Amino acid sequence: MSYYFLEIGSEEIPAGFIGKSCDFLRGEFEKQLKENNIAFGSVTADGTPRRMYVYVTGIAEKQADSEEFIMGPPASIAYDADGNLTKAGQGFAASKGIKPEDLKRTKTDKGEYISGVKKSVGVETAEVLKDLVPRIIKSIPFQKSMRWGSTDFRFARPVHWFISLFGGEVLPFEIDGIQADRFTYGHRIMCPSRFEIKDYDSYVKTLADARVTVNTESRKEQIMIQIKALEEKHGFRVDVDPDLLDTVSNLVEAPVAVLGSFSEDFLKLPPEVLITSMKNHQKYFYVNDKNGKLLNYFIGISNTEPENTELIRKGYARVLRARLTDAKFFYENDINVPLSQRTEELRKVVYQEKLGTSYAKMERFRTVAAYLAETLDNTAKANTDRAAYLCKADLLSEMVYEFPELQGIMGREYAALQKEEESVVKAIFEHYLPRFAGDRLPETAAGSFVSMADKLDTVCGCFAVGLIPSGSNDPYALRRSTIGILQIIRTKGYRLDLGSLIEKSLSVLAGAVKFDAEKTAAAVKEFILQRLKQLLVTEGVDGECFDAASGLSSDVITLEKAARALAKYRNSAEFGVISQGYKRINNILKKQEWNTDAVNPALFEKVEEKALADLLAEKKQATAELINKEDFETALSGLLAFSKPVDAFFEAVMVMAEDEKVKNNRLSLLTGLRNIFGLAGDLSKLA
């Protein structure tokens, strides 16, 4: 066993590209080595802004020999009447490298064919890698790449060197005129020299001495240690954002934490403005006191250990001061403009070509939000209406124009300054929630209603004009909007009829857009139900159980309760008998309805009929009452008692009796049984 090591040296690659590219390299090397029948131990891929590397351990010196079973032409074509190979048979053997005497006759469902085993001798791994490695490098799927030389080779940034070592020896290849070798380069500023590399261990040590930490997790650890030291020294607290830590660790090769500050006068701005400027724009860590109050300090991560730290600190502060000065200017301009004025200006803003202006969209979801308030909590109707009217106003503010990620946040801040009701202030921000998986949900009723209404209008509007997600293509984030609606409904326990809610949303759209209301409503409902199904499946509920329950109600809470109850019992033997019985009954009745009141005990010829009828009479009302109370678990538990009687009935009773009255009596009995089982869902889908 040996090893293979690859380094791709380049100019600084954007931080957001590195992790994904290294993941691709690791996965692609694993995939290609397996497909090429080359044994290996593990594949590691990592990188810095100036280099990405792959290290394969325990790699075999050559491919394993292989055998492949190959089916040839029919024996009637491969052999003549005397049993000799025809030209077709000989051609098959020659083309596959199989000796004629090794061919065999193989019987299949389609007749007798000739077959053979193609034996391949493995070639040297080094020979495979010479072709394989350049192909993998050229296939890295960067978000954006360019041609930097005279060839068609594309990469995120210009490539300057390759290291390619197989078992300590250079494995040669060439891309864009660059020959693979065993030389790397240290830190661009602190140690830019050229270094010879013998193996992976020497690579890590040599670059560490050359001021480069090649392992991403190690760089993160170094950053955290330095931040911790500053916390202990100065007595403040840094809430390290994992995403920011990921980004910063891929911006540097030798992280050095630098503590800086800005004028306390900027603390008059909303904290989110300062945090956004520091975190999103400057990639600084913001600093709080022990109680979580934002301080006028920040921590920047430098890529060098400067001789004059104060110079770096001042440079970081100067850049941030310019950003915060702009923010202060925007803020002071914005607070002089009423939100209601901004809302009216939305009449001039196109939301979507076919769906009209942002003001028109606001009017639509404002109507739906009012409907939700009337249905769920009428005391919140006035604040819901006001929040819906104002919630998009900050989109036209100077602050949000410059910092789009502050939408909703600035609306909340400006509404508070303009003395709006507290729940209105909160709802303006909350109507964007949840923004991503794991995000918090609206706390206020108004925020919940406006959030659901806005998201539903987006879904209904896009479906109405044909902007329907397909595959991974979902430019208007309709899946995310739908999941947000469902999360609010499920968490808050809102009892809503999805069909009525969708019809309400589409009704306010009808005046502006032409569409088939019935088909669109059905499509939107199915889209929402599929998202609900996916959510439940991720939580451990069998998808088939949801399918079985889906016809019971248009209420999300009801559907979830029913699906979870079915999932609890579906694997029991008794439930299996019931679901199979339900399916069999459906096949017998073929969707015909028989009068269950017409069951006449006097026509029973078998004790099994009477036993089933008696149990049905006993359970019918109680089961219906439990289902009405949505106690699906207790109802299903009671239905399990039908297991043995149903099994015995079908064993002993011929339903389609010659006597017409007896037959019809039995069909009426089965109709009653189908009705009671159907209260829990379409059990045939679980048979």
From TrEMBL:
According to the record, the signal peptide region is none
* Keyword terms, alphabetized: Aminoacyl-tRNA synthetase, ATP-binding, Cytoplasm, Ligase, Nucleotide-binding, Protein biosynthesis
Q: Which domain of life is it from?
A: Bacteria
Subcellular localization is given as: Cytoplasm
Look up the record and report any one GO term of the cellular component aspect: cytosol
User: Enzyme group, top EC level?
Assistant: ligase
Per the record, the GO terms for biological process are: arginyl-tRNA aminoacylation; glycyl-tRNA aminoacylation
Which SUPFAM superfamilies does its entry note? Answer: HD-domain/PDEase-like (SSF109604)
EC number(s) per entry: 6.1.1.14
Q: HAMAP family given for it? A: Gly_tRNA_synth_beta
Instruction: Describe the subunit structure.
Output: Tetramer of two alpha and two beta subunits.
Q: What protein name applies here?
A: Glycine--tRNA ligase beta subunit
